[in-house]
Amino acid sequence: MTGNVVVIGGGTAGMEAAGLLAKEGLKVTLIEKENEIGGHIKDWYHIFPDRRNSMEVIEYLRNKINHDNITLITGNTINGVEKKSGSFHISTVTGKEIRADAVLIATGFDLFKSERKEEYGYGIYDNVITSADLESMFRKGEVKLTDGEKPGRIGFIHCVGSRDEKVGNVYCSKLCCVTAVKQAMEIKEQFDEAKVFCFYLDMRMGGALYEELYRESQEKYGINYIRGKVSEVGVTISNKLVVKIEDTLAGRPLRMELDMLVLMAGMEMSDSGKLISETSNLKTGENRFFAPADHHIGSNKGNVKGIFYAGACTAPMNITETISHARSAVIDIVDYLRNGQ
Ligand code: SF4
Predict the structure, then answer these.
(1) Whose CA is nearest to atom 6 of ligand 1?
(2) What is the pTM of this model?
């Protein structure tokens, strides 16, 4: 078949969809705002549930877009998408204009900026890091405290920037519980003698093999799960981190000293997605992600005919769901270009 499709976002969803659209014979322009394609997964070390190296997935996606029908543009951000007499005009912040018959938005998510939860001390105290920082340490093989010492007591705070009315995000980011479980196990593999604590509100393990991973983390690795909300983080005179928490299962307040604290930052609509929604009249939902035309039978379709969505630009999603969502977007785009549906 013939036609031009612009895919905005060179992460997992964008790459998967671009490869499949190109295979259908469509001319695809894949635009990524960063200088390198791959999205968040390229910064991750191991992914759940089987803890495979994320590079294997990146390799798969790179092969997928290695196609003559794909033109890749990196380091450029989309300013707006305008529909004029049935076709789309996509403008970039550098002044580039591209015409397309259909547009796929795959702008993904941004991690919640943990500095906004000042009470947890990110950017204020040493050794308060985010889950993304820890993953980068795993990748470099350098998990250590700022003074170079091994961490002996490590805490993970769940729901940072999610399920939190104060920051305006009442939704669950879906993946941070399982990420904490995975990272807690990986910490124990590096430092067998370490004591690891997860401070959670609820454990939401709604994915294939997640519950099994959670059980393994307790039975094999001895991770301690404490139900309750951390109210405050501070430091002692000897520069140890101190967390205050109400243990809601035991019904008593706790005060614990730790060497390292990992904040499980949630997912938010990306800044690049926000810009497109504002300049292109695309609806967003209460969670501020793109709102699909229909949650059940049109989750890839936008409120403007010919504009489609794939992946975590519509809601938090894991890699498996993102790839499936990208594939279903391709089916909808092909149908639209063939039948105008
Ligand atoms: S997945 Fe877990 S940590 Fe993440 S927002 Fe939901 S309950 Fe909180």
Answers:
(1) 172
(2) 0.95
